[in-house]
Structure formats: C-alpha cells, structure tokens
C-alpha cells in the first residue's frame, strides 16, 4: 500500500486541541524506550502522559501506532520519537484511512434522533438518516440514489454546513415550509419550480437551525452523512447498491428505528 501522511493545508479546531494536548505531553513526559515486556497500549500510554486515549492499535503497512483521542486520530512512530497529527491517505486505493477509522468508531443513537424536522422518504422495515446540504453536489447525486430505496424509510435532514450562508439556509427553510416537503425537495434538486416560491416562516427557519444544532452536536462536519439504525456513521456519496449492502450488514448496536 502507498500512504500519504499529514494534512498541512488546514488544521481543524479539534486537531488544534490535540496539538495543545501534545505540547503539554512533550513538556511533562520523559522519553520512553520500547520495551518488549510492555503491551503496546501501556507503552504508548506512558509516552503520551496527559492525553485521554480512546483506542491504540498498530496500523499494518504504515508500521506506526494509531492513537485515537476525542474522535481524532494521530500517529506515533514505533520508536516513540515522532507524534504526527494529520490524516493518512492510501494512494493506491484512493481512501482516506483516517476518516474510515474514525467513522468506524463513531456511533449515533438512531432512536434518539429528533425526526420532527426530517423529511421522510420511502417506507420499509429498514431505516436510515441522511444529513444533506442543498449547496452540495454530492448530496444531489446521493438523493437520486436514495429515491430508488422505496422499501427503506429514509429521514432526510436539511443541514447547511455553512449555517451563515443565508441563501442556502433560506432555500432549506422554503422546502420545510412546503405542504409536500418531499416534492419540494425533489423539485429543489431536479425540478423546475424554484423552492423560493414558498416564503419561509420563522418556524421553518427555526427547524433548519434545529437540524444544524443537532448535526453539530453529533460532530457531523461534512455532507452527505448517513446514519444507520445501529448507529454507524457513513460519510460521502454512496450508490443504491452500496447503501443496500450497508443496510444488510449485521447490526452492531441496540439502537432501533
């Protein structure tokens, strides 16, 4: 496998917190040599004193420790000398391995998602939730795939990532103000009737803001994002076949529809 390590263009807020924690670690921690008698977990814990660690594992092929803390991943070389805050990309398979790992660990309680401000599409025994942004082209593509899942109950949350973008926020509120919200959403993505034909009320704007608060509360930072019934979080565009495969996978939790 080929890897590209690091993300030098932008440091998210969470990574900044991790970096600050690292500074404290470097100031207060002695150097630790690798001991064959210590477990990986205990070795890394002793090296990164002061950092709340959720999981530790060795990434095969990369030959480094992966350390997950507060939903962020960092990497520690086997000799315990270099600690790298960034993302790992598999250049061969074109995958963001860091994102894949974090998403595999994340869980959202599906049953506790407030569905009052969601748009319901389809009807079936299986269900999923989707956070989508009307300014996102991949969300538009995903909506076309979701429309094929007529035997699946899909709850769609209009979730403008840039909440300060009044145009997108108003468009989302207009959809939620329509008598037939799903038809208005379909028209927004694929139809010729502009959603602005429905004047959004304060209540509909509040519904969009509720979605934004909920999404941020669940650390949803990109769209589209899918939430499965067992709590798994899947980020990015998926085809109908890929979504059905996810739904068919054994449930990993007790969260219900």
What's the quick description here?
With 257 residues, this protein is α+β, with helices and mostly antiparallel strands.
Tell me the name of the CATH class of the largest domain: Alpha Beta
Strand content: 15-25%
Low-confidence stretches: 6-17, 19-37, 253-257
Might you state the CATH topology name of the largest domain? Glutaredoxin
Largest sheet: 5 strands, mixed
Mean pLDDT across residues = 80
* Secondary structural class: alpha+beta
Quote the distance from N terminus to C terminus. Answer: 39 Å
Report Rg.
21 Å
- Please give the order of strands in the largest beta sheet: 8-10-9-11-12
CATH-scheme architecture of the largest domain: 3-Layer(aba) Sandwich
Instruction: Look at the structure and name the CATH superfamily of the largest domain.
Output: Glutaredoxin
How many extended strands? 12
Secondary structure tally, helices? 8
Count of the separate structural domains: 2
Give the H and E element order: EHHEEEEEEHEEHEHHHEEH
Share of helical residues? 25-40%
Principal-axis shape: elongated
Structure description:
The structure is a single chain. By secondary structure, this protein is an alpha+beta fold. It folds into two domains: 3-105, no CATH class; 110-248, Glutaredoxin (3-Layer(aba) Sandwich). Helix content is 35%, strand content 20%. Strand 6 and strand 7 (95-96) form a beta hairpin. Helix 5 (166-177) crosses helix 6 (181-190) and helix 5 packs across helix 7 (202-217). The longest helix is centred in the first third of the chain and has 16 residues, at 13-28.
């Amino acid at each position: 496998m080929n890897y590209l390590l690091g993300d030098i263009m932008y440091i998210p807020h969470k990574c900044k917190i991790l970096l600050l924690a690292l500074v404290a670690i470097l100031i207060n921690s002695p150097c630790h040599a690798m001991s064959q008698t210590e477990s990986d977990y205990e070795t890394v814990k002793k090296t990164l004193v002061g950092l709340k660690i959720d999981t530790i594992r060795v990434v095969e092929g990369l030959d480094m420790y992966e350390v997950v803390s507060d939903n962020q991943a960092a990497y520690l070389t086997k000799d315990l000398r270099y600690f790298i805050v960034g993302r790992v990309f598999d250049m061969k398979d074109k995958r963001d391995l860091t994102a894949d790992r974090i998403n595999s660990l994340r869980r959202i309680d599906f049953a506790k998602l407030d569905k009052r401000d969601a748009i319901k599409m389809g009807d079936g025994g299986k269900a999923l939730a989707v956070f989508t942004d009307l300014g996102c082209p991949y969300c538009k593509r995903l909506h076309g795939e979701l429309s094929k899942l007529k035997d699946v109950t899909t709850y769609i949350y209009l979730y403008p990532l840039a909440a300060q973008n009044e145009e997108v926020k108003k468009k989302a509120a207009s959809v939620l103000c329509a008598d037939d919200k799903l038809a208005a959403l379909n028209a927004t993505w694929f139809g010729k009737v502009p959603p602005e034909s429905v004047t959004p009320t304060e209540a509909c704007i509040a519904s969009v803001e509720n979605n934004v608060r909920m999404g941020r509360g669940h650390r949803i930072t990109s769209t589209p994002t899918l939430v499965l019934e067992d709590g798994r979080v899947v980020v990015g565009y998926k085809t109908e076949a890929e979504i059905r495969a996810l739904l068919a996978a054994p449930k990993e939790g007790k969260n219900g529809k």
